[in-house]
Amino acid sequence: MSDQKQQTIVVDGLALAQDIRKQLAEEVGRYAAADKRVPCLAVVLVGDDPASASYIKGKQRACSRVGMDAIERRLPASASEQDVLLVVQELNLNDAVDGILVQLPLPKGISSNAIAAAIDPAKDVDALHPTTAGRLLLGTPTLAACTPLGVMEILDRYGIELEGANAVVIGRSNIVGKPVSLMLQSRNATVTMCHSKTRNLREICRQADVLVAAVGIPRLVKADWIKPGAAVIDVGVSNVDDKLVGDVDTEGAMGIARIVTPHRRGVGPMTITMLLRNTLTAYRARTGG
Ligand code: NAP
Q1: Are 214 and 239 in contact (CB under 8 A)?
Q2: Which residues pair with 192 in a beta bridge?
Q3: Residues of the chain with pLDDT > 70: what percent?
Q4: Which residues line ligand 1 (CB under 6 A)?
């Protein structure tokens, strides 16, 4: 066996995101130049959680930087599910709105499933409506969840072969684990989905040509879980002693993985970028443009 170390590429998710945003800005600019309405994202915030407020500000800022419109609907923490449903209904009917995003988590007593199910699937840029999820399952064209789209974009841009690859996804949430598994499968990878009850997780991970960790346990994936030459995508974000930490021991992955995403400037910047792309996709589908 050769003891030559693998040259590991650390994914620059920020540069990739900026590159895609530049293209989006050019496309949006063409609509503006033709005196057409530009795509518009509506964000709904219920309550006054500072982290959520900061996330929606970031999303609005990202919209304006690529020339898209963004509108905001704020409701107090005391709002009822019915209040939120009425706002969603108003946005569904508003012809100038292409994408609707309701910031999660919602206050206690408001069902995020009920709210997601009320969003017009044509405007479902966060891809949480059952119809959107069902379309992904059936393999029909659809808007799709932003973080999984970002993961796929990274794999493609870094030239990772997916056909026939063994892909292991740790985590089975509706927003990350399940959709990314379906996307990998649709690209002809052989996908294993792992979760909290999976036995022999380390051994399964060691078979992975593509390993996606979306758990939220700091540095769960150790160096000896990684197959030499694997593409390792770290979606997880945890706060440890006021520092953001991913699901993967990134330093341990160096010299083993072919590519690895860092926990900062990795998947994160791609998520908002895919939200912008979804908004443009929804705009085009709605306007026929
Ligand atoms: P989630 O809904 O909490 O799901 C976590 C998944 O991890 C569950 O399926 C759970 O299994 C599984 N899990 C828990 N402990 C495990 C263990 N010991 N071994 C294997 N699997 C285990 O989380 P999520 O919303 O998918 O998010 C996952 C992580 O990604 C979080 O850290 C989140 O902050 C981060 N995230 C980042 C971005 C980004 O843009 N960077 C976007 C979204 C999420 P069970 O199903 O059995 O409970």
Answers
A1: no
A2: 168
A3: 99
A4: 147, 170-173, 175-177, 194-198, 201, 214-217, 235-238, 267-268, 271
Over residues 119-127, mean pLDDT: 98
pLDDT band at 24 (very low <50, low <70, confident <90, very high): very high
Of all protein residues, whose CA lies closest to atom 32 belonging to ligand 1? Answer: 216
Active site residues: 59, 103, 126
Other beta carbons within 10 angstroms of residue 120's beta carbon come to: 18
105 preceded by cis ω (within 30°)?
yes
**Global confidence as pTM:** 0.96
Quick check: 260 and 227 in contact, CB under 8 A?
no
Closest CA to 55 of 89, 10, 100, 102: 102
- Structure tokens belonging to residue 112: 């995020």
Q: Could you tell me the two tokens for 52?
A: 């959520």
Residue nearest to atom 17 of ligand 1 (CA): 196
State pLDDT tens for residues 60-78. 999 999 999 999 999 999 9
Q: Which two tokens stand for residue 106?
A: 């919602």
